[in-house]
Amino acid sequence: MGIATQAAGYDFAILSGPPVSNQQAVQLKQEVLDYNNSEFKHQFSPSLNAATSAINTGRLVGRNASLSDLSTQLIDQNMQTQNTYIQARDTYTRQGEINEWQAQNKLDTLFFLQILFLFFSLVVILLYLRQGKLLSNTGVYGTIGVLLLVVIGVLWNRVSYTNMSRDSRYWNRRYIAANPNALSSGQCPT
Asked: Does this model's pTM top 0.70?
């Protein structure tokens, strides 16, 4: 048996035999060390690969978690942006309704002021004609009274319509309360 074979098999019986030369002892020692080193590398290499795989797996799990967190943050940010747009749309829609309400209110006020202007214009014309003795006092005051009743009627109509019938959200719409019994079969003639 050769020295390399004996060293590889851990056969140290040769050491208990007759003394070997210094050269053979150094060679035997080197072969034993080389064998131990190769066995260590052979056994350590899979565990090193497993450790590297575990580290890489840990990195991948960490990266997946950070990607998941990033995607969750992006989804939350998109939802906030979407909610902001929805709220802005609702705000703009409501502002449009308010603007429409103000415009219709101004038109209604302008209508009444025009009626009032026509009333005062006719009163001035009638008083001028009465002053010139073209119309009698009774005719002038009677006409002014009728015109005053028309102005008061228009004012009463606008005020009662606004307070009782006008839709509070849409100025130009009339609010009609739904009567659930209005279409019941008990009220229909047979």
From this structure: no
